[in-house]
Amino acid sequence: MTFTRSFNKTYSWLYAYSWNRVTSISSQAYLGFPLSSDTNCGLPVIEFDIFNPLIRWSRQIKRSDAFSVSAQAVLNCSKSLNNTKQWNILQCDTTTDKCIQTQFLNQLISQLSSSTTSEIYINSQQLPLGTYLFNFTISMDAYAGYATSGYTYITIISSDIQVNLLPNGTSMITNGVTQSILFEPGVYSIDPDSNYFNPAVNKIYISLIENKQKNIFLEF
Question: What fold does the segment set 43-157 form as a domain?
Answer without folding.
Answer: Immunoglobulin-like (2.60.40)
